[in-house]
Amino acid sequence: MSDNNSTLLRAVQQLDPQANPDPVDSDALLARVRLAIADAPAEMPDLAPRPVPRTTRRVVVGAAATILLGAAVYTVANPAQPPAYASWTPTPTELTAPVAAERAVECPTVEVMQGPPEDPTDMTDIPLTMNLAEERGDYTFAVSSGVGAEGESAYSVCLIEPDRITAQGEVLPADALTPPAASDVVVLNSSIDWSVSSEEDAITYLVGTAGADVTGIDVNAVAGSFAHASLADGWWAVWFPGDVDLTTDLTVTTSDGTTREVAAVPGSSDDTGDPEDTD
Amino acid sequence: MKATPEERFESLYWTHHRELLAFIRRRTSPNVAEDILAETFVVTWRRIEEVPMEARPWLFGVARNSIRNYLRADGRQQALRIRLEQEPPEAQPDLSVAIASRADLVTAWNLLTDSEQEVIALTAWDDLSNSEAATVLGCTKSAFAVRLFRARRRLLHLLERTGTGSSRSGPRRQAQGSQS
């Protein structure tokens, strides 16, 4: 936390309306609690906190079946700035490691893995290392990943705007980050609506891993627009402004100059969780 | 030897009831705070076997849901507004005081969204760690960290605007404890 932010939180503490709370008769309050327990109806609303969502999803690209590739919609607050992402470009600029590290300094450095159902608060941090960072107009998009102590893997994406940073991530099955075959491409995120609300703008992104021979990936939107993905360190990523329907195929170029269309196919997925940024 | 359910319940009550009551009082009017605390402990008793060993964030989560349940039933909205005329709890010579006048800070605070106020308040007022606050809100720690970062930055931004003395103070909102 920066000095400014530490100072800010200390200042906010001064506003605490309960900084000097009224005295509490704890014994009388306990008696009241016991009375409430005795008088409570048999049926009550479920007021226990929800377990922290954990997502394990994977979509593999490369087989014959075709589906409409629904992409993750990743929301960011962006009030009073229409049109959103005006300077976005379909072709990214790759950033050098020092520049990427500097810009992504506030991005998450861990993805938190929820504990087992019997104790969901027993959470584990999966440390993340940046794999890719790109720039489109005024916006930097970074992808990080990591593997936990017990083999669980995770990725996190981070959108850095001039005045804000937002991030999302997923915990994945243990083998999810295994490098694909040389000319293959894997999409790691799946079709999830990431808590779009009226006050927030969205982006649509895809992130995944690519084989060693893959030199280019293009992604097309149903409406006709397209974008070149960034490729680095065996990872690829692309994003579009707004909630965009993407076509079924990615255009993948390999080092021998071959270009082919590959279709998105759902792989082993566990669609039981919700995206992490829902509330 | 493992504590009996009754012993565990008593231990949870005596360890946490004051901070839970403060948490509830910050978000509701004083005349209902003890009722909501009682409901929180009714839920705790009924689910005593499910209460995790790290009970604090779980209890705050129950209290938060109890508040929302009450406010929903009562047709009110949760608010963490600060009344400008409210006296500061105690004047303290601290670096943080230099960040702005109290009036500027209150104005900026009241311009935050409910969600932005909540993530900052969980940290600054309720003294929850990022991990605990994430459990209370039902999100991951990294998601909470990002939300907190975003809220802090917006507060700083608002503070810079209000601190210039400009008239862009936006709509005044209801004072804490007087939701309608």
Automatic annotation (TrEMBL), chain A:
Residues 257-279 are annotated as: Disordered. This is Uncharacterized protein.
From TrEMBL, chain B:
Residues 13-76 form the RNA polymerase sigma-70 region domain. Residues 105-155 form the RNA polymerase sigma factor 70 region 4 type domain. Gene3D superfamilies: 1.10.1740.10, Winged helix-like DNA-binding domain superfamily/Winged helix DNA-binding domain. Signal peptide: none annotated. Keywords: DNA-binding, Sigma factor, Transcription, Transcription regulation. InterPro entries: RNA_pol_sigma-70-like (IPR039425), RNA_pol_sigma-70_dom (IPR014284), RNA_pol_sigma70_r2 (IPR007627), RNA_pol_sigma70_r4_t2 (IPR013249), RNA_pol_sigma_r2 (IPR013325), RNA_pol_sigma_r3/r4-like (IPR013324), WH-like_DNA-bd_sf (IPR036388). It comes from the Bacteria. Residues 160-180 are annotated as: Disordered. Residues 163-180 have a biased composition (Polar residues). It comes from Occultella glacieicola. Belongs to the sigma-70 factor family. ECF subfamily. This is Sigma-70 family RNA polymerase sigma factor.
